[in-house]
Specification:
Helices cover 59% and strands 13% of the residues. It has 91 residues and is α+β, with helices and mostly antiparallel strands. The protein is globular, with a radius of gyration of 13 Å.
Length: 91
């Protein structure tokens, strides 16, 4: 992956992660459609960064039925990592 694409991926992933942390309540589950609506992005533009975040161990993605709602749940350490990212990005 080129540096420009990697930086764009990281920016999108951090926006999605931040949105998830804002939407989730103490370990709660958030839907893909809720996040897409909140970000005003098409669901696929939210889903792709979610796949990378899941691969990196931040989130769990579950879909109980084909073409059904997609549910996103936190994995341990998400809130600590997101808080650390937010404090770094504001300095």
């Amino acid at each position: 992956m080129s540096i420009a694409h990697e930086e764009a991926y990281q920016e999108s992933a951090m926006q999605v992660l931040s949105c998830f942390a804002d939407c989730a309540t103490s370990g709660g589950t958030v839907t893909l459609s809720d996040m897409a609506n909140r970000l005003s992005w098409p669901p696929v533009h939210v889903f792709i960064p979610l796949l990378f975040l899941m691969h990196e161990g931040y989130l769990e993605i579950i879909q109980e039925t084909f073409f059904g709602e997609v549910y996103i749940s936190p994995l341990p350490g998400l809130y600590a990592v997101n808080h650390e990212y937010q404090s770094i990005s504001t300095n």
